[in-house]
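Task 17 of the worksheet. Students: predict the tertiary structure of the chain below and write it out as structure tokens. Keep your answer in the requested format; marks are given for formatting as well as content.
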Amino acid sequence: MLFVILMTVILFDGFAQNKSCPVVGFDLGVDLMSRYVWRGTQFGGNTPSIQPYTAFSVGGFEFGTWAAYSLGGDNTGQEFDLSLSYTFANEMFTVLVSDYYFPDNTVDYNYFDYNQDNTGHVFEGTFSFNGTENFPLTILGAVNFYGADPGKIESDPTSPDFNEQIGIQYSSYFELGYSAQIGDVAFEPFIGATITDPKEEDLSIGFVGEEGYYGTGPGVVNLGFTASKEISITEKFALPIQASIITNPQAEKVFFVFGFSF
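Model answer:
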């Protein structure tokens, strides 16, 4: 409901300022990835992930849906997201609001429950500089501002409501990226870090805390590069493929992810 209201207000304002007919577009597709790794963390275990998406755009606005479904057979790593963005200044800047939703096989979440104490949603605000042709550097900053990003008190694990949330952590993530072309391969190195310092453990009140949305404390959590190209299958069809080397220095993890798109 929040996204419907927000989108209606923004689109109305956009049409009011732009008397000419805006460009309307729609896109849909699916990525098949060897693993689901996002911002330096792997979701869904050691199984491939199928990731469908849709996007409706009008003018500089875009409303999108994205999902991830682990082929491992359980709810771990399942995700359904909504997003609303506005790109402006000749596509140099983007403001984005995302609603991440994670079904969990250990918690009976109600999708339409947006109460801070019980919700399975996480809302994030993002601002990014998208670079230009002459300056292909991208800068992104994101912060969680509502939802399932809290510390927790576990005073009685046998109680049905033992997860009493004590406040959102406002987990943050910042990333620098660069775009280059090497022959017919697009090459994109990146480095991402968090500055969030999760609430500390206090066993006297049963507060066991969380490691944080991205890690155990401030530091680099996402470092690597993505290489992508198109492989011609026929004269009219080319298959986009990509491969990423991703490291998480804080967690001392490394991933090699491969995938292709339809």
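Marker's comment: The radius of gyration is 20 Å. Residues 1-17, 153-163, 201-209 have pLDDT under 50 and may be disordered.
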